[in-house]
Amino acid sequence: MRTGVEGFQGQRLRQLRAAHSLTLAELGEQVGRSPSTLSAWEKGSQLPEAESFGRLCEVFGVSQQWFFKPIVQVTEESSLRPYFFRSQASAHKQARERSQLYLLWLQEISVFFQDAMDWPPVNVPMLDADDCRLISDDEIEDLARECRQRWRLGTGPIPDIIQVMENAGIICTRATLGHVKMDGVSHVSVMDGRPYVLIAEDKANAIRSRFDAAHELGHIVLHSRIPASQYSKKELYSLMEEQAHRFASAFLLPPESFSQEVVWPTLDNLLSLKSRWKVSVAAMIVRCRDLSLLNEQLELRLWKGRSARQWTKGEPGDDAIPFEQPKLMTRGVHLLVDNGVFSRDELVHQIGLPPEIIEMLCNLRRGYLTEHSNAEGNVVALKLKPRAKRVGGRVAGDVLPFKQ
Amino acid sequence: MNQEEICRFICQELPRHRLQSLLESIDAAFNKSDKHLKETYRHVPVVGPGPQSHHFMVQEALLSLPEGDGFQVINRATKPAGGHFALISAGAIKITASVVTADRVPPVREAKFRRELRQENARLQQQHPDLFEAFVPPFGPQDDAIHALLLPYATKWSDTDHSAPLSCIIAVPYSDDLNSYHLWVDVGQLWQYYGEEEGGLADIAYPKLRDRMRNAEAQAKEEGGKG
User: Is the pTM of this model over 0.80?
Assistant: First the structure.
Protein backbone atom coordinates (compact mmCIF):
# COMPACT_ATOMS: atom_id res chain seq x y z
CA MET A 1 0.00 0.00 0.00
CA ARG A 2 1.32 3.44 -0.97
CA THR A 3 1.68 5.99 1.77
CA GLY A 4 2.17 9.72 1.40
CA VAL A 5 0.23 12.68 0.03
CA GLU A 6 -2.72 11.23 -1.88
CA GLY A 7 -3.54 12.78 -5.25
CA PHE A 8 0.07 13.90 -5.87
CA GLN A 9 0.67 14.15 -9.64
CA GLY A 10 4.15 12.94 -10.41
CA GLN A 11 4.08 14.51 -13.88
CA ARG A 12 3.78 17.96 -12.35
CA LEU A 13 7.05 17.36 -10.56
CA ARG A 14 8.58 16.24 -13.87
CA GLN A 15 7.34 19.45 -15.51
CA LEU A 16 8.79 21.71 -12.85
CA ARG A 17 12.12 19.92 -12.86
CA ALA A 18 12.31 20.29 -16.66
CA ALA A 19 11.36 23.97 -16.52
CA HIS A 20 14.13 24.62 -14.00
CA SER A 21 16.58 22.37 -15.88
CA LEU A 22 17.35 20.37 -12.75
CA THR A 23 18.61 16.79 -12.74
CA LEU A 24 17.16 14.27 -10.31
CA ALA A 25 20.38 14.42 -8.31
CA GLU A 26 20.36 18.23 -8.12
CA LEU A 27 16.76 18.33 -6.99
CA GLY A 28 17.37 15.43 -4.61
CA GLU A 29 20.05 17.49 -2.89
CA GLN A 30 17.68 20.38 -2.37
CA VAL A 31 14.83 18.23 -1.11
CA GLY A 32 17.00 15.88 0.90
CA ARG A 33 15.89 12.69 -0.87
CA SER A 34 17.64 10.29 -3.19
CA PRO A 35 17.33 10.58 -6.98
CA SER A 36 15.67 7.17 -7.17
CA THR A 37 12.98 8.28 -4.72
CA LEU A 38 12.31 11.39 -6.79
CA SER A 39 12.14 9.27 -9.91
CA ALA A 40 9.56 7.04 -8.22
CA TRP A 41 7.51 10.14 -7.28
CA GLU A 42 7.59 11.31 -10.89
CA LYS A 43 6.50 7.93 -12.19
CA GLY A 44 3.75 7.71 -9.58
CA SER A 45 4.96 4.47 -8.07
CA GLN A 46 5.58 6.26 -4.76
CA LEU A 47 4.09 9.33 -3.10
CA PRO A 48 6.04 11.96 -1.20
CA GLU A 49 5.33 12.25 2.53
CA ALA A 50 3.99 15.53 3.91
CA GLU A 51 7.37 16.95 4.88
CA SER A 52 9.01 16.35 1.50
CA PHE A 53 5.88 17.57 -0.26
CA GLY A 54 6.11 20.87 1.62
CA ARG A 55 9.78 21.07 0.71
CA LEU A 56 9.00 20.56 -2.99
CA CYS A 57 6.48 23.42 -2.93
CA GLU A 58 9.04 25.61 -1.22
CA VAL A 59 11.85 24.79 -3.66
CA PHE A 60 9.74 25.53 -6.74
CA GLY A 61 7.64 28.33 -5.23
CA VAL A 62 4.35 26.73 -6.28
CA SER A 63 1.15 26.24 -4.32
CA GLN A 64 0.29 22.79 -2.97
CA GLN A 65 -2.70 22.74 -5.22
CA TRP A 66 -0.41 22.75 -8.23
CA PHE A 67 0.74 19.21 -7.53
CA PHE A 68 -2.84 17.91 -7.39
CA LYS A 69 -3.89 19.27 -10.79
CA PRO A 70 -4.22 16.41 -13.25
CA ILE A 71 -2.68 16.84 -16.69
CA VAL A 72 -4.96 16.46 -19.67
CA GLN A 73 -4.08 13.15 -21.29
CA VAL A 74 -4.80 12.49 -24.95
CA THR A 75 -5.32 8.81 -25.47
CA GLU A 76 -6.51 8.66 -29.08
CA GLU A 77 -3.77 8.80 -31.69
CA SER A 78 -5.96 10.92 -33.99
CA SER A 79 -6.39 13.58 -31.29
CA LEU A 80 -2.65 14.04 -30.82
CA ARG A 81 -1.73 17.44 -32.12
CA PRO A 82 1.90 18.38 -32.65
CA TYR A 83 3.76 21.27 -31.03
CA PHE A 84 5.43 23.19 -33.85
CA PHE A 85 8.86 24.44 -32.90
CA ARG A 86 10.58 27.21 -34.79
CA SER A 87 14.20 26.70 -33.91
CA GLN A 88 17.54 26.15 -35.44
CA ALA A 89 18.52 22.53 -35.84
CA SER A 90 21.07 22.85 -33.06
CA ALA A 91 18.53 24.15 -30.55
CA HIS A 92 18.95 22.41 -27.26
CA LYS A 93 16.46 19.76 -26.25
CA GLN A 94 16.02 21.60 -22.96
CA ALA A 95 14.89 24.73 -24.81
CA ARG A 96 12.26 22.81 -26.72
CA GLU A 97 11.06 21.09 -23.58
CA ARG A 98 10.84 24.36 -21.70
CA SER A 99 9.01 26.17 -24.48
CA GLN A 100 6.53 23.30 -24.75
CA LEU A 101 5.94 23.42 -21.01
CA TYR A 102 5.39 27.14 -21.01
CA LEU A 103 2.88 26.78 -23.82
CA LEU A 104 1.09 24.00 -21.96
CA TRP A 105 0.90 26.14 -18.82
CA LEU A 106 -0.39 29.02 -20.88
CA GLN A 107 -3.19 26.78 -22.13
CA GLU A 108 -4.01 25.71 -18.58
CA ILE A 109 -4.17 29.31 -17.39
CA SER A 110 -6.32 30.25 -20.38
CA VAL A 111 -8.72 27.35 -19.79
CA PHE A 112 -8.92 28.30 -16.13
CA PHE A 113 -9.77 31.89 -17.10
CA GLN A 114 -12.47 30.63 -19.45
CA ASP A 115 -14.51 29.41 -16.50
CA ALA A 116 -15.18 33.06 -15.84
CA MET A 117 -14.86 34.76 -19.20
CA ASP A 118 -14.77 34.32 -22.95
CA TRP A 119 -11.84 35.03 -25.24
CA PRO A 120 -12.57 36.51 -28.68
CA PRO A 121 -13.89 33.74 -30.97
CA VAL A 122 -11.32 31.85 -33.04
CA ASN A 123 -11.43 33.23 -36.57
CA VAL A 124 -8.57 31.47 -38.35
CA PRO A 125 -8.90 29.63 -41.66
CA MET A 126 -7.37 26.22 -40.97
CA LEU A 127 -6.52 24.03 -43.92
CA ASP A 128 -8.22 20.66 -43.79
CA ALA A 129 -5.22 18.62 -44.91
CA ASP A 130 -3.85 15.64 -43.05
CA ASP A 131 -0.78 15.20 -45.23
CA CYS A 132 1.66 18.08 -45.58
CA ARG A 133 3.06 16.64 -48.83
CA LEU A 134 -0.18 17.55 -50.57
CA ILE A 135 0.06 21.26 -49.74
CA SER A 136 1.29 23.24 -52.75
CA ASP A 137 2.94 26.67 -52.85
CA ASP A 138 -0.06 28.09 -54.68
CA GLU A 139 -2.33 26.85 -51.92
CA ILE A 140 -0.11 28.53 -49.34
CA GLU A 141 -0.23 31.82 -51.27
CA ASP A 142 -4.02 31.54 -51.50
CA LEU A 143 -4.37 30.91 -47.78
CA ALA A 144 -2.16 33.87 -46.93
CA ARG A 145 -4.37 36.00 -49.16
CA GLU A 146 -7.50 34.57 -47.57
CA CYS A 147 -6.18 35.46 -44.11
CA ARG A 148 -5.57 39.04 -45.20
CA GLN A 149 -9.03 39.26 -46.71
CA ARG A 150 -10.77 37.71 -43.72
CA TRP A 151 -9.00 40.03 -41.30
CA ARG A 152 -9.38 43.05 -43.59
CA LEU A 153 -5.70 43.81 -43.75
CA GLY A 154 -5.61 45.03 -47.36
CA THR A 155 -2.38 44.53 -49.24
CA GLY A 156 -0.14 46.92 -47.34
CA PRO A 157 2.34 46.28 -44.52
CA ILE A 158 0.91 44.82 -41.29
CA PRO A 159 1.62 47.18 -38.41
CA ASP A 160 1.37 44.56 -35.63
CA ILE A 161 1.34 40.79 -36.28
CA ILE A 162 0.65 39.81 -32.66
CA GLN A 163 -2.34 42.16 -32.64
CA VAL A 164 -3.68 40.54 -35.81
CA MET A 165 -3.31 37.08 -34.27
CA GLU A 166 -4.97 38.09 -31.02
CA ASN A 167 -7.81 39.73 -32.94
CA ALA A 168 -8.34 36.33 -34.57
CA GLY A 169 -8.59 34.64 -31.16
CA ILE A 170 -5.07 33.19 -31.00
CA ILE A 171 -3.59 33.38 -27.50
CA CYS A 172 -0.01 34.65 -27.68
CA THR A 173 2.77 35.04 -25.17
CA ARG A 174 6.42 36.03 -25.13
CA ALA A 175 8.76 34.14 -22.86
CA THR A 176 12.44 33.96 -22.02
CA LEU A 177 13.66 30.47 -22.77
CA GLY A 178 17.34 30.98 -22.04
CA HIS A 179 18.40 29.72 -25.48
CA VAL A 180 18.91 32.04 -28.44
CA LYS A 181 18.46 29.26 -30.97
CA MET A 182 14.84 28.73 -30.03
CA ASP A 183 12.40 31.09 -31.73
CA GLY A 184 8.89 29.98 -30.97
CA VAL A 185 6.36 27.23 -30.61
CA SER A 186 2.69 26.89 -31.48
CA HIS A 187 -0.06 24.39 -30.81
CA VAL A 188 -3.77 24.03 -31.28
CA SER A 189 -4.94 23.00 -27.85
CA VAL A 190 -6.84 19.77 -27.27
CA MET A 191 -8.32 21.42 -24.17
CA ASP A 192 -10.31 24.12 -25.93
CA GLY A 193 -9.45 23.80 -29.64
CA ARG A 194 -7.87 27.24 -29.56
CA PRO A 195 -4.47 28.06 -31.12
CA TYR A 196 -1.67 29.10 -28.76
CA VAL A 197 1.62 30.69 -29.73
CA LEU A 198 4.77 31.35 -27.76
CA ILE A 199 7.44 33.65 -29.16
CA ALA A 200 10.89 33.53 -27.58
CA GLU A 201 12.15 36.90 -26.44
CA ASP A 202 15.78 35.87 -26.09
CA LYS A 203 16.72 37.53 -29.38
CA ALA A 204 16.84 41.30 -29.30
CA ASN A 205 15.37 41.74 -32.77
CA ALA A 206 11.79 42.88 -33.21
CA ILE A 207 11.86 42.39 -36.99
CA ARG A 208 12.83 38.75 -36.58
CA SER A 209 10.25 38.33 -33.83
CA ARG A 210 7.51 39.48 -36.24
CA PHE A 211 8.58 36.88 -38.77
CA ASP A 212 8.62 34.22 -36.02
CA ALA A 213 5.02 35.11 -35.16
CA ALA A 214 3.95 34.94 -38.83
CA HIS A 215 5.75 31.59 -39.13
CA GLU A 216 3.79 30.18 -36.19
CA LEU A 217 0.61 31.55 -37.70
CA GLY A 218 1.56 29.58 -40.82
CA HIS A 219 1.72 26.35 -38.82
CA ILE A 220 -1.72 27.05 -37.34
CA VAL A 221 -3.28 27.79 -40.74
CA LEU A 222 -1.56 25.02 -42.68
CA HIS A 223 -0.82 22.21 -40.26
CA SER A 224 -3.53 22.18 -37.59
CA ARG A 225 -4.99 18.93 -38.90
CA ILE A 226 -1.64 17.23 -39.51
CA PRO A 227 -1.11 14.29 -37.14
CA ALA A 228 1.78 14.50 -34.69
CA SER A 229 3.33 11.40 -36.23
CA GLN A 230 4.10 13.33 -39.45
CA TYR A 231 5.82 16.17 -37.66
CA SER A 232 8.16 13.76 -35.91
CA LYS A 233 9.52 12.49 -39.25
CA LYS A 234 12.66 14.38 -40.12
CA GLU A 235 12.03 14.91 -43.85
CA LEU A 236 8.42 15.98 -43.27
CA TYR A 237 9.47 18.25 -40.42
CA SER A 238 11.72 20.19 -42.84
CA LEU A 239 8.93 20.38 -45.40
CA MET A 240 6.48 21.78 -42.85
CA GLU A 241 9.02 24.34 -41.68
CA GLU A 242 9.53 25.46 -45.29
CA GLN A 243 5.79 25.71 -45.78
CA ALA A 244 5.37 27.83 -42.65
CA HIS A 245 8.20 30.04 -43.93
CA ARG A 246 6.51 30.44 -47.28
CA PHE A 247 3.25 31.35 -45.57
CA ALA A 248 4.99 33.94 -43.37
CA SER A 249 6.60 35.52 -46.45
CA ALA A 250 3.36 35.56 -48.39
CA PHE A 251 1.40 36.93 -45.45
CA LEU A 252 3.88 39.69 -44.65
CA LEU A 253 4.75 40.57 -48.26
CA PRO A 254 1.73 40.03 -50.53
CA PRO A 255 2.63 39.68 -54.21
CA GLU A 256 0.17 42.34 -55.45
CA SER A 257 1.74 45.21 -53.57
CA PHE A 258 5.24 44.09 -52.63
CA SER A 259 6.33 43.14 -56.15
CA GLN A 260 5.16 46.53 -57.35
CA GLU A 261 7.35 48.29 -54.84
CA VAL A 262 10.44 46.24 -55.64
CA VAL A 263 11.08 47.80 -59.00
CA TRP A 264 14.73 46.86 -58.99
CA PRO A 265 15.86 44.51 -56.22
CA THR A 266 19.13 45.91 -54.94
CA LEU A 267 20.25 45.76 -51.32
CA ASP A 268 19.78 49.50 -50.90
CA ASN A 269 16.30 49.44 -52.39
CA LEU A 270 15.27 46.52 -50.21
CA LEU A 271 16.74 48.24 -47.17
CA SER A 272 14.70 51.34 -47.96
CA LEU A 273 11.57 49.16 -47.90
CA LYS A 274 12.50 47.55 -44.58
CA SER A 275 11.15 50.27 -42.30
CA ARG A 276 7.87 50.26 -44.19
CA TRP A 277 7.24 46.52 -44.38
CA LYS A 278 9.05 45.68 -41.11
CA VAL A 279 10.61 42.63 -42.71
CA SER A 280 14.33 41.85 -42.88
CA VAL A 281 16.27 42.31 -46.11
CA ALA A 282 17.05 38.58 -46.01
CA ALA A 283 13.36 37.70 -45.94
CA MET A 284 12.73 40.16 -48.77
CA ILE A 285 15.43 38.52 -50.92
CA VAL A 286 13.76 35.15 -50.37
CA ARG A 287 10.38 36.65 -51.21
CA CYS A 288 11.76 38.23 -54.39
CA ARG A 289 13.04 34.80 -55.39
CA ASP A 290 9.64 33.21 -54.64
CA LEU A 291 7.94 35.85 -56.78
CA SER A 292 10.52 35.44 -59.58
CA LEU A 293 11.57 39.06 -59.24
CA LEU A 294 15.21 38.03 -59.49
CA ASN A 295 17.12 35.24 -61.13
CA GLU A 296 19.52 32.83 -59.46
CA GLN A 297 22.58 34.88 -60.37
CA LEU A 298 21.19 38.11 -58.96
CA GLU A 299 20.02 36.35 -55.83
CA LEU A 300 23.50 34.98 -55.25
CA ARG A 301 24.93 38.45 -55.76
CA LEU A 302 22.51 39.87 -53.19
CA TRP A 303 23.41 37.22 -50.61
CA LYS A 304 27.11 37.87 -51.19
CA GLY A 305 26.58 41.60 -50.96
CA ARG A 306 24.62 41.19 -47.75
CA SER A 307 27.39 39.09 -46.30
CA ALA A 308 30.06 41.59 -47.45
CA ARG A 309 28.20 44.37 -45.66
CA GLN A 310 28.25 42.20 -42.53
CA TRP A 311 24.49 42.12 -42.31
CA THR A 312 24.44 38.43 -41.44
CA LYS A 313 25.01 39.30 -37.78
CA GLY A 314 22.51 42.11 -37.82
CA GLU A 315 20.96 44.31 -40.47
CA PRO A 316 20.63 48.09 -40.23
CA GLY A 317 17.26 49.02 -38.75
CA ASP A 318 16.85 45.82 -36.76
CA ASP A 319 16.38 47.78 -33.56
CA ALA A 320 14.36 50.60 -35.12
CA ILE A 321 10.97 49.24 -34.09
CA PRO A 322 9.77 48.16 -30.65
CA PHE A 323 8.81 44.56 -29.87
CA GLU A 324 5.17 43.72 -30.43
CA GLN A 325 3.53 42.85 -27.14
CA PRO A 326 0.69 40.38 -26.54
CA LYS A 327 -2.23 42.00 -24.72
CA LEU A 328 -4.99 39.42 -24.53
CA MET A 329 -3.78 37.47 -21.48
CA THR A 330 -2.95 40.72 -19.68
CA ARG A 331 -6.45 41.96 -20.35
CA GLY A 332 -7.86 38.67 -19.09
CA VAL A 333 -6.06 39.03 -15.76
CA HIS A 334 -7.09 42.65 -15.41
CA LEU A 335 -10.69 41.78 -16.21
CA LEU A 336 -10.82 39.14 -13.50
CA VAL A 337 -9.00 41.21 -10.90
CA ASP A 338 -10.70 44.54 -11.59
CA ASN A 339 -14.17 42.96 -11.51
CA GLY A 340 -13.41 41.25 -8.24
CA VAL A 341 -13.77 37.72 -9.64
CA PHE A 342 -10.41 36.88 -8.07
CA SER A 343 -8.01 38.82 -5.93
CA ARG A 344 -4.41 38.69 -7.11
CA ASP A 345 -3.56 36.30 -4.26
CA GLU A 346 -6.41 33.97 -5.14
CA LEU A 347 -5.40 34.03 -8.77
CA VAL A 348 -1.84 32.94 -7.94
CA HIS A 349 -3.15 30.31 -5.56
CA GLN A 350 -5.66 28.88 -8.03
CA ILE A 351 -3.23 28.74 -10.92
CA GLY A 352 -0.58 27.35 -8.61
CA LEU A 353 2.46 28.40 -10.65
CA PRO A 354 5.09 30.77 -9.25
CA PRO A 355 3.86 34.39 -9.63
CA GLU A 356 6.84 35.37 -11.79
CA ILE A 357 6.00 32.63 -14.32
CA ILE A 358 2.36 33.75 -14.42
CA GLU A 359 3.51 37.34 -14.89
CA MET A 360 5.75 36.30 -17.77
CA LEU A 361 3.14 34.15 -19.51
CA CYS A 362 0.41 36.75 -19.08
CA ASN A 363 2.76 39.59 -20.01
CA LEU A 364 2.07 41.36 -16.73
CA ARG A 365 4.26 43.99 -15.19
CA ARG A 366 6.90 42.32 -13.02
CA GLY A 367 5.68 42.35 -9.45
CA TYR A 368 2.03 42.87 -10.40
CA LEU A 369 0.95 39.71 -8.58
CA THR A 370 3.29 39.91 -5.60
CA GLU A 371 3.71 43.55 -4.71
CA HIS A 372 0.02 44.20 -4.51
CA SER A 373 -0.77 41.11 -2.47
CA ASN A 374 1.90 42.05 0.06
CA ALA A 375 0.49 45.51 0.28
CA GLU A 376 -3.01 44.19 0.80
CA GLY A 377 -2.02 41.80 3.56
CA ASN A 378 0.24 44.10 5.49
CA VAL A 379 -1.30 47.49 5.69
CA VAL A 380 1.00 49.66 7.72
CA ALA A 381 -0.45 52.79 9.26
CA LEU A 382 1.70 55.73 8.39
CA LYS A 383 2.58 58.11 11.17
CA LEU A 384 2.97 61.74 10.46
CA LYS A 385 6.32 63.15 11.34
CA PRO A 386 6.29 65.25 14.51
CA ARG A 387 6.28 68.92 13.77
CA ALA A 388 9.77 70.03 12.92
CA LYS A 389 11.49 71.83 15.69
CA ARG A 390 12.39 75.39 15.32
CA VAL A 391 15.75 75.85 13.64
CA GLY A 392 17.42 79.17 14.11
CA GLY A 393 14.27 80.70 15.42
CA ARG A 394 12.29 79.79 12.28
CA VAL A 395 9.82 77.00 11.69
CA ALA A 396 10.81 74.59 8.91
CA GLY A 397 8.56 75.32 6.00
CA ASP A 398 8.42 79.07 6.44
CA VAL A 399 8.65 80.95 3.18
CA LEU A 400 11.81 82.99 2.87
CA PRO A 401 11.67 86.12 0.78
CA PHE A 402 14.05 86.33 -2.19
CA LYS A 403 16.71 88.96 -2.03
CA GLN A 404 16.33 91.44 -4.80
CA MET B 1 13.93 71.47 -47.73
CA ASN B 2 15.84 68.22 -47.51
CA GLN B 3 15.08 65.10 -49.54
CA GLU B 4 12.97 63.54 -46.81
CA GLU B 5 10.77 66.61 -46.56
CA ILE B 6 10.29 66.70 -50.33
CA CYS B 7 9.36 62.99 -50.32
CA ARG B 8 6.83 63.60 -47.55
CA PHE B 9 5.41 66.56 -49.44
CA ILE B 10 5.02 64.50 -52.61
CA CYS B 11 3.29 61.70 -50.68
CA GLN B 12 1.04 64.22 -49.02
CA GLU B 13 -0.06 65.71 -52.34
CA LEU B 14 -0.10 62.55 -54.45
CA PRO B 15 -2.27 59.84 -52.88
CA ARG B 16 -0.86 56.34 -52.77
CA HIS B 17 -3.37 54.90 -55.23
CA ARG B 18 -2.64 57.69 -57.70
CA LEU B 19 1.07 56.92 -57.66
CA GLN B 20 0.25 53.26 -58.04
CA SER B 21 -1.94 53.90 -61.09
CA LEU B 22 0.75 56.19 -62.59
CA LEU B 23 3.34 53.43 -62.35
CA GLU B 24 0.92 50.80 -63.57
CA SER B 25 0.02 52.86 -66.63
CA ILE B 26 3.70 53.43 -67.44
CA ASP B 27 4.30 49.68 -67.16
CA ALA B 28 1.35 48.99 -69.41
CA ALA B 29 2.53 51.61 -71.94
CA PHE B 30 5.99 50.04 -72.10
CA ASN B 31 4.46 46.64 -72.63
CA LYS B 32 2.09 47.85 -75.35
CA SER B 33 4.77 49.81 -77.16
CA ASP B 34 7.20 46.90 -77.05
CA LYS B 35 4.57 44.61 -78.49
CA HIS B 36 3.75 47.14 -81.22
CA LEU B 37 7.42 47.60 -82.13
CA LYS B 38 8.01 43.87 -82.38
CA GLU B 39 4.94 43.36 -84.55
CA THR B 40 5.64 46.33 -86.84
CA TYR B 41 9.39 46.37 -87.33
CA ARG B 42 10.89 43.09 -88.40
CA HIS B 43 13.89 44.51 -90.27
CA VAL B 44 14.27 48.08 -89.12
CA PRO B 45 16.27 48.27 -85.86
CA VAL B 46 14.04 49.55 -83.05
CA VAL B 47 16.75 51.95 -81.94
CA GLY B 48 15.11 54.47 -84.32
CA PRO B 49 11.36 54.23 -83.71
CA GLY B 50 11.62 52.64 -80.24
CA PRO B 51 12.27 55.70 -78.03
CA GLN B 52 9.58 57.72 -79.80
CA SER B 53 7.04 54.92 -79.61
CA HIS B 54 7.68 54.43 -75.89
CA HIS B 55 7.53 58.17 -75.26
CA PHE B 56 4.21 58.70 -77.02
CA MET B 57 2.68 55.55 -75.58
CA VAL B 58 3.58 56.72 -72.05
CA GLN B 59 2.11 60.16 -72.74
CA GLU B 60 -1.05 58.55 -74.09
CA ALA B 61 -1.34 56.30 -71.04
CA LEU B 62 -0.94 59.23 -68.66
CA LEU B 63 -3.50 61.30 -70.54
CA SER B 64 -5.96 58.43 -70.20
CA LEU B 65 -5.74 58.39 -66.40
CA PRO B 66 -9.04 59.08 -64.64
CA GLU B 67 -9.34 62.50 -63.02
CA GLY B 68 -10.80 63.53 -59.68
CA ASP B 69 -9.93 64.48 -56.09
CA GLY B 70 -7.48 67.17 -57.16
CA PHE B 71 -5.82 64.90 -59.72
CA GLN B 72 -5.87 66.19 -63.29
CA VAL B 73 -3.97 65.53 -66.52
CA ILE B 74 -3.84 67.92 -69.50
CA ASN B 75 -2.24 67.71 -72.92
CA ARG B 76 0.04 70.71 -72.92
CA ALA B 77 1.64 72.20 -76.02
CA THR B 78 5.35 72.89 -76.01
CA LYS B 79 6.79 76.32 -76.54
CA PRO B 80 7.99 76.82 -79.21
CA ALA B 81 5.00 74.98 -80.61
CA GLY B 82 5.31 71.62 -82.28
CA GLY B 83 5.06 69.06 -79.54
CA HIS B 84 2.73 67.99 -76.75
CA PHE B 85 3.25 66.44 -73.36
CA ALA B 86 1.07 65.18 -70.55
CA LEU B 87 1.12 67.52 -67.58
CA ILE B 88 -0.23 66.03 -64.37
CA SER B 89 -1.48 68.13 -61.53
CA ALA B 90 -1.86 66.46 -58.16
CA GLY B 91 -2.50 68.96 -55.40
CA ALA B 92 0.45 71.30 -55.38
CA ILE B 93 2.62 69.07 -57.55
CA LYS B 94 3.02 69.13 -61.29
CA ILE B 95 4.42 65.99 -62.83
CA THR B 96 5.75 65.26 -66.29
CA ALA B 97 7.15 61.95 -67.45
CA SER B 98 10.05 61.31 -69.81
CA VAL B 99 11.39 57.95 -70.92
CA VAL B 100 15.15 57.77 -70.43
CA THR B 101 17.35 55.14 -72.01
CA ALA B 102 19.59 53.38 -69.51
CA ASP B 103 23.26 54.37 -69.54
CA ARG B 104 22.56 57.33 -71.77
CA VAL B 105 22.58 60.87 -70.50
CA PRO B 106 20.70 63.18 -72.86
CA PRO B 107 22.99 66.01 -73.87
CA VAL B 108 22.00 69.32 -72.39
CA ARG B 109 24.37 71.53 -74.30
CA GLU B 110 24.89 75.21 -74.00
CA ALA B 111 24.99 75.71 -77.80
CA LYS B 112 26.37 78.93 -79.14
CA PHE B 113 23.27 79.81 -81.16
CA ARG B 114 21.01 79.24 -78.14
CA ARG B 115 23.15 81.47 -75.96
CA GLU B 116 23.11 84.20 -78.60
CA LEU B 117 19.37 83.92 -79.09
CA ARG B 118 18.81 84.18 -75.35
CA GLN B 119 20.91 87.32 -75.13
CA GLU B 120 19.04 88.76 -78.07
CA ASN B 121 15.68 87.93 -76.48
CA ALA B 122 16.69 89.46 -73.17
CA ARG B 123 17.56 92.70 -74.97
CA LEU B 124 14.37 92.71 -77.07
CA GLN B 125 12.11 91.88 -74.11
CA GLN B 126 12.99 95.18 -72.44
CA GLN B 127 12.31 97.19 -75.58
CA HIS B 128 9.22 95.32 -76.84
CA PRO B 129 7.46 93.71 -73.87
CA ASP B 130 4.30 93.14 -75.94
CA LEU B 131 6.20 90.62 -78.10
CA PHE B 132 6.57 88.24 -75.18
CA GLU B 133 3.54 86.69 -73.55
CA ALA B 134 3.73 86.49 -69.82
CA PHE B 135 3.85 82.96 -68.41
CA VAL B 136 0.41 81.78 -67.34
CA PRO B 137 0.45 78.79 -64.99
CA PRO B 138 -1.62 76.04 -66.62
CA PHE B 139 -3.63 75.19 -63.49
CA GLY B 140 -3.93 78.72 -62.12
CA PRO B 141 -1.55 80.60 -59.83
CA GLN B 142 0.14 78.52 -57.14
CA ASP B 143 2.95 79.73 -54.93
CA ASP B 144 3.93 76.53 -53.20
CA ALA B 145 3.84 74.17 -56.21
CA ILE B 146 6.77 72.00 -57.19
CA HIS B 147 7.47 70.26 -60.44
CA ALA B 148 8.50 66.63 -60.30
CA LEU B 149 9.84 64.50 -63.11
CA LEU B 150 8.89 60.88 -63.41
CA LEU B 151 11.65 59.14 -65.32
CA PRO B 152 11.05 55.53 -66.36
CA TYR B 153 14.29 53.94 -67.56
CA ALA B 154 14.16 51.84 -70.72
CA THR B 155 16.80 49.20 -71.41
CA LYS B 156 19.38 49.98 -74.10
CA TRP B 157 17.81 49.90 -77.54
CA SER B 158 20.35 47.38 -78.74
CA ASP B 159 18.76 44.91 -76.27
CA THR B 160 15.68 42.92 -77.23
CA ASP B 161 13.27 43.33 -74.31
CA HIS B 162 11.73 46.73 -73.63
CA SER B 163 8.45 45.51 -72.21
CA ALA B 164 8.93 47.02 -68.75
CA PRO B 165 10.91 49.91 -67.33
CA LEU B 166 14.16 48.98 -65.58
CA SER B 167 13.34 51.35 -62.78
CA CYS B 168 11.57 54.61 -62.27
CA ILE B 169 13.13 57.73 -60.82
CA ILE B 170 11.30 60.61 -59.27
CA ALA B 171 13.23 63.84 -59.52
CA VAL B 172 12.70 67.47 -58.56
CA PRO B 173 14.95 69.66 -60.71
CA TYR B 174 16.39 73.02 -59.74
CA SER B 175 14.41 75.79 -61.33
CA ASP B 176 17.45 77.53 -62.79
CA ASP B 177 19.89 74.74 -63.47
CA LEU B 178 19.10 71.83 -65.74
CA ASN B 179 21.80 69.58 -64.28
CA SER B 180 21.00 69.82 -60.58
CA TYR B 181 18.22 68.19 -58.61
CA HIS B 182 16.70 68.75 -55.19
CA LEU B 183 15.57 65.14 -55.23
CA TRP B 184 16.67 62.14 -57.27
CA VAL B 185 15.42 58.85 -55.84
CA ASP B 186 13.94 55.58 -56.99
CA VAL B 187 10.19 55.85 -56.83
CA GLY B 188 10.16 52.72 -54.62
CA GLN B 189 11.66 54.80 -51.83
CA LEU B 190 8.52 56.93 -51.70
CA TRP B 191 6.41 54.07 -50.34
CA GLN B 192 7.94 54.26 -46.90
CA TYR B 193 6.59 57.80 -46.50
CA TYR B 194 3.07 56.61 -47.23
CA GLY B 195 3.57 54.00 -44.50
CA GLU B 196 3.84 56.75 -41.91
CA GLU B 197 0.36 57.97 -42.72
CA GLU B 198 -1.41 54.63 -42.85
CA GLY B 199 -4.00 54.03 -40.19
CA GLY B 200 -3.47 51.63 -37.34
CA LEU B 201 -4.89 48.18 -36.97
CA ALA B 202 -8.23 47.71 -35.23
CA ASP B 203 -7.82 46.32 -31.72
CA ILE B 204 -10.64 43.89 -31.05
CA ALA B 205 -8.76 41.47 -28.80
CA TYR B 206 -10.79 41.90 -25.64
CA PRO B 207 -12.07 39.14 -23.36
CA LYS B 208 -15.59 39.37 -21.92
CA LEU B 209 -16.83 38.32 -18.53
CA ARG B 210 -19.27 35.45 -18.81
CA ASP B 211 -22.86 36.37 -18.25
CA ARG B 212 -23.36 33.58 -15.77
CA MET B 213 -20.60 35.09 -13.69
CA ARG B 214 -22.29 38.45 -13.83
CA ASN B 215 -25.59 36.82 -12.90
CA ALA B 216 -23.99 35.00 -10.02
CA GLU B 217 -22.43 38.24 -8.83
CA ALA B 218 -25.75 40.03 -9.03
CA GLN B 219 -27.45 37.18 -7.24
CA ALA B 220 -24.82 37.17 -4.50
CA LYS B 221 -25.28 40.89 -4.06
CA GLU B 222 -29.04 40.49 -3.80
CA GLU B 223 -28.72 37.75 -1.28
CA GLY B 224 -26.21 39.76 0.69
CA GLY B 225 -28.57 42.72 0.62
CA LYS B 226 -31.47 40.63 1.88
CA GLY B 227 -29.38 39.12 4.65
Answer: no
